[in-house]
Amino acid sequence: MTDKKSVLVIGLQPTLIDFSSPDYAAYPGMNAAKVLAGLKASEESLADLGYDVQMCMIDFGETAEAVVRDQLEQKPFDCVLIGAGLRTIPGNFLLFEKLLNVVHAHAPQAKLCFNTKPTDTAEAAQRWL
Asked: What is the span of the domain harbouring residue 104?
């Protein structure tokens, strides 16, 4: 048993994203490698702050709800962060809504937080923990 606060970070698997799509025009020069590096840095930052962090990378909906549900059923989380790529891209709106409902059903005790980019994930979690 640990006294560490636990954080589940939910985001799209960066290697599945088409960064040339018009949906990603607001993020020029972004690519999977940059997103993965930002996610890794966020995970390390959260761990350095003393949080138990679990990354949950999902697809665009084929298995996303089941993957998130499975993660939430493994253990209780104090905080669940849903990444900007799910919230800010109009084509991902319905997936975001579905994921919110999965989190609500399977982790009603968890605080919800949202980042604006991979590099401000720790700040988002700290607002609520």
From this structure: 6-128
Kindly compute the dihedral angle of the four CA atoms of residues 73, 75, 78, 83, in this order, to the nearest 10 degrees. Answer: -50
Sheet holding 6-12, edge to edge: 52-58, 6-12, 79-82, 111-114
Looking at the domain assignment, is residue 64 inside a domain? Answer: yes
CATH number at residue 124: 3.40.50
Residues 42 and 117: beta-carbon distance below 8 Å: no
**Count of the separate structural domains present in the chain:** 1
Two tokens, residue 54: 């679990």
80-123 tens-digit pLDDT: 999 998 999 999 999 999 999 999 999 999 999 999 888 899 99
Assess if residue 1 is contained within a domain.
Answer: no
Note whether 82 and 95 are within 8 A (CB). no
